[in-house]
Specification:
The chain has ten helices and five strands, in the order αααααααβββαβααβ. It has 255 residues and is mostly helical. The strands form two sheets. It has a three-stranded mixed sheet, with no helix packed on it. Strands 4-5 form a two-stranded parallel sheet. β2 and β3 form a beta hairpin.
Length: 255
């Protein structure tokens, strides 16, 4: 342990920033501010301090994906989760953490990583909540979806939709089910009890909205999900099979 000197003003400020009953020392507060997992979380995981080399590995993968495909919207990850589950938008929040762990989107210290976000989700203390919340926001069709079962949001203001954000009937339009009038429809369902389906033009909308008309480098993506097999044709085939990529969806990827 290294010792540092702090004055009374800094100490008082750290006390104000501390999470009561959770952060009991200035070190705890500073670790959170610096984006490091809490010492208690590391100890609970049966680890000493995380390997810097291991941390760099997942950071390097994320940087490589952002460098080669920086145009990708972070919500593209939700599309991949959906394709992996093959449920047309009906995956649940309980599927998210296992997906990220299955495809190595978590660092040894517990940081869940959407490779198209600059910063990781929080560590053990806050990670699962922020990870699920961020992805759930898209899954609930607030973004790029329609709760009225339509393929387009064009002219929806004139249709008296009960999910319209300006519908005065709040009882018929529960907050989390409101549409937010994003450009396209990827996922849709007729009623809250209906199954999710893809919209008619979902591939084109994913391509234009999530990928800005570009395509994701498939080799790099497969290499990130199947470490050590970046150049292995098996990794590419496994990705296509495991994510149920059909012919129409191949336009979203490039060699």
């Amino acid at each position: 342990m290294k010792k540092i000197d702090i004055d009374s003003e800094v100490y008082q400020k750290l006390k104000e920033l501390a999470d009561p009953f959770v952060e009991t020392s200035p070190n705890d507060v500073l670790r959170r501010i610096l984006g490091l997992p809490s010492v208690k979380a590391v100890e609970r995981a049966g680890e000493s301090m995380p390997s810097l080399e291991a941390e760099r590995d997942i950071t390097a993968v994320s940087k490589d994906l952002r460098r080669s495909a920086g145009y990708v919207h972070p919500a593209f990850l939700t599309f991949l989760i959906d394709k992996h589950k093959a449920v047309g938008g009906g995956f649940s929040t309980s599927d998210i953490i296992p997906f990220m762990e299955r495809f190595h989107l978590v660092s040894p210290s517990g940081f869940y990583r959407n490779p198209w976000m600059e910063k990781p989700y929080g560590g053990q203390r806050r990670g699962k909540t922020s990870c699920e919340g961020s992805i759930e926001q898209y899954r609930q069709c607030r973004h790029y979806g329609c709760w009225g079962g339509r393929d387009s949001k064009a002219d929806c203001e004139t249709l008296d939709c009960r999910y319209h954000p300006r519908n005065p009937d709040l009882e018929a339009c529960v907050g989390r089910n409101k549409c937010d009038l994003r450009k396209g429809v990827i996922w849709k369902r007729e009623t809250p009890l209906s199954p999710y389906t893809f919209g008619r033009d979902y591939v084109e909308i994913v391509h234009s909205e999530f990928l800005k008309g570009e395509a994701v480098p498939l080799g790099l993506l497969a290499g990130a999900f199947y470490p050590g097999e970046e150049e292995n044709e098996r990794a590419l085939n496994q990705f296509i099979q495991e994510f149920h990529i059909d012919e129409s969806e191949k336009v979203l990827f490039r060699p």
